[in-house]
Specification:
With about 375 residues, this protein is α/β, with parallel strands linked by helices. It has two domains: about 280 residues, Rossmann fold, CATH 3.40.50; about 80 residues, Alpha-Beta Plaits. About 35% of the residues lie in helices and about 20% in strands. It has 16 helices and 15 strands. Helix 2 packs parallel to helix 4 and helix 8 packs across helix 10. The radius of gyration is 20 Å and the shape is globular. The relative contact order is 0.15. Bound molecules: iron/sulfur cluster (SF4) (2 copies). The site of one iron/sulfur cluster (SF4) has 13 residues, from helix 14.
Length: about 375
């Protein structure tokens, strides 16, 4: 797989068609990735029901532009994703999410369909190091090619969400929390993500970094204009470069740490060839990191830390999710998305059992009211990042 990442500047979604054409020209043209008669899944990021200007989801203008270009090759693109873990993967919730996130509009503008098939297929991946079997959504199973249309965002659990993490959306709805329950340390979770990315092997990844998300992403951070579109055939290479632009220390990105342990390339910026811009010109040095950003107090983030030290000092060394009752509308999305049943209704508001909570932050990700805050201990704040 090539280690090249292509970047063009794009300061406004209004200019996306021209900028996408420039990006595809750099990459050898859309005909390199889509061919007549093929079904191509546009795997967008539809984490939750959110307006495009909140930067939670892939912008519909980009999705429409990619769809138009793919369609010109004679291929049949289709928009698909299984939203975050708190949502049932059914036509009713998809319709709401498509509408709010602008996907119905994108499909209409490009003259393509959105996916309504909510079945899943079991698949095997013998090369998987940690996970060799997955259930994946049927459109991805049936497609000849997948385009990974991800969003540049911070992530309270994995540091950032970009190309590799976006692929987790091929796992159907409420199956997702099961992975958090089974792989409840972040390094193992990252290993599963790398296996899944290996199975899906998107032909093309395009990252929407026109307006990214900083702070406590991926569901409750703040929009931040970065003004870029990134493309690659290698999702890992794209994440290496995106992490540099976001000024995220690579040792705090479990996907890159795990990739390096597996000797996957590239896991470091020195191994990536960047085409189109000078990295120094596009870095965002003050990009706000998530407050959970793996403060490990100088300790090696290996299995010993994750299995012994962190659990022992859980409340002191980790950031706790807590429901802000005045915001909670008792919709129950967080309860459905919690992998360990740590949330229940108390007096008609969600309430978290701290002892059961494994700090996966799925509830924070999916809450439509941003009613789940993150709180750290005085010790955590005092010692600060390692
Ligand atoms: S905290 Fe309240 S509003 Fe947010 S997902 Fe849970 S039940 Fe819904
Ligand atoms: S309550 Fe804890 S375990 Fe449950 S979703 Fe939230 S962070 Fe994850």
């Amino acid at each position: 797989m090539e280690n090249k990442v292509y970047i063009v500047t794009c300061n406004d979604y209004a200019e996306i068609q021209a900028k996408l054409t420039s990006l595809m020209d750099l990459m050898g043209g859309m005909q390199r990735f889509a061919h007549s008669g093929e079904k191509i899944v546009l795997k967008v990021n539809l984490l939750r029901e959110a307006r495009p200007d909140t930067a939670v989801t892939t912008h519909p203008t980009l999705v429409a532009a990619v769809a138009r270009m793919a369609k010109e090759t004679g291929a049949t693109p289709i928009i698909a994703d299984s939203p975050g873990g708190g949502y049932r993967y059914n036509a009713k919730s998809l319709d709401k999410i498509y509408r709010t996130c602008g996907m119905h509009r994108a499909a209409r503008e490009a003259g393509i369909e959105v996916n309504w098939d909510t079945t899943a297929r079991p698949v095997s991946y013998a090369e998987g190091q940690l996970t060799k079997h997955f259930d994946i959504i049927t459109p991805v199973y049936e497609a000849q090619g997948v385009f990974n249309l991800c969003k540049m965002k911070t992530h309270v659990f994995t540091g950032m969400t970009g190309a590799v993490k976006n692929i987790f959306g091929v796992i159907p709805g409420l199956t997702k929390p099961g992975y958090h329950a089974k792989l409840n340390d972040v390094q193992r979770f990252a290993g599963m993500l790398l296996d899944l990315a290996g199975y899906v092997s998107p032909r093309l990844t395009i990252m929407d970094a026109v307006v990214a998300m900083e702070g406590d992403g991926p569901g409750a951070g703040e929009p931040r204009t970065v003004g870029l579109l990134l493309g690659s055939t290698n999702p890992l290479a794209l994440d290496v470069v995106a992490g540099e632009i976001m000024n995220l220390d690579r040792t705090r990105n479990p996907i890159l740490v795990e990739a390096e342990q597996r000797a996957l390339t590239p896991s470091r910026i020195e191994d990536v060839e960047i085409i189109g811009v000078d990295l120094a010109d596009v870095r965002v040095p003050d990009f706000k990191q998530p407050q959970t950003s793996a403060r490990r107090f100088g300790l090696d983030p290996g299995p010993l830390y994750q299995r012994m030290i962190e659990p022992m000092f859980k409340n002191a060394f980790t950031v706790r999710p807590k429901v802000m009752w005045h915001r909670c509308i008792a919709c129950g999305t967080c309860i459905k998305g919690c992998p360990v049943e740590a949330i229940s209704f108390v007096k008609e508001r969600a309430s978290i059992d701290d002892d059961k909570c494994i700090r996966c932050y799925c509830c924070h990700e999916v809450c439509p009211e941003e009613a789940i805050g993150l709180y750290s201990s005085w010790l955590y704040r005092l010692i600060g990042p390692a």
